[in-house]
Amino acid sequence: MLIRVGSRGSRLALTQAGRGAAHLRAPGIEIALVPITTAGDRDRTRPFGEIGERGVFVKELEEALLDGRIDVAVHSAKDMTSTDTDGLCVGAYLTREDPRDALCGSDELRAGMRVGTASIRRRAQLLALEATLSIEPLRGNIDTRLRKRRERGLDAIVLAACGLDRLGLAGEIGRRFEADEIVPEAGQGALALQVRTGDEHLVAAADDAETRRRVEAERSCVAEIGGGCLAPVAAHHDGRQLTALVAAEDGSWIERRSGSDPSQLAAELLACLR
Questions:
Q1: Which runs of E-coded beta strand occur in 154-219?
Q2: For position 157, which CATH number holds?
């Protein structure tokens, strides 16, 4: 039996796809990796909000699934939209790795630093921590962003710690922000194996129940808030409770709520926006 595994073509994406494929290998199972270019890969200059809503690294992979060109798509769960696309579902979440954001180039935030990130979620929370920061847009894969930091003389950049860990680049990290300092993106640190509805059996053995519990709570909360690339919204479940956040992009205000019910937290945060 051949299982075609779709992935973006970056070094990190292919590394992640390899991890997903490793969970699917079994006697009689052959794996073929199928690289697919997404809108977010083609346009590496414009802010995410100008390319499209959240999902710019996912749409083409989902289309390949629906068209039957691949059987499994491997995503960083943080890149997925907050609700499942009709006809598709997450058949498995691999055991979650470090969900935190990482500061590269410095071991702390200092007044007046130039910090690179394309994420408005990170921008808002960084400015809330240190209002005098100069936040500069920075796109590209991990290797590109690390190179651009040096070329542009940025004091630091912020990346997902898990991606650096997966590529053996943990040495680039000066500081890992705790989740109560900068609330991670919903799903950050987890890999999702997406399949057509009805094909869950292809990946079911790889599913980590605890990761699913946490990530699905995060995605549900963000979906009810209506967050995406156009709004600074975050949610993170630490195993004990869920923390969700909405913020002004300039960091001038942030509202956080913690609890066990994603719908209740979303309602409370939406009330703050009225």
A1: 156-160, 173-176, 191-196
A2: 3.40.190.10
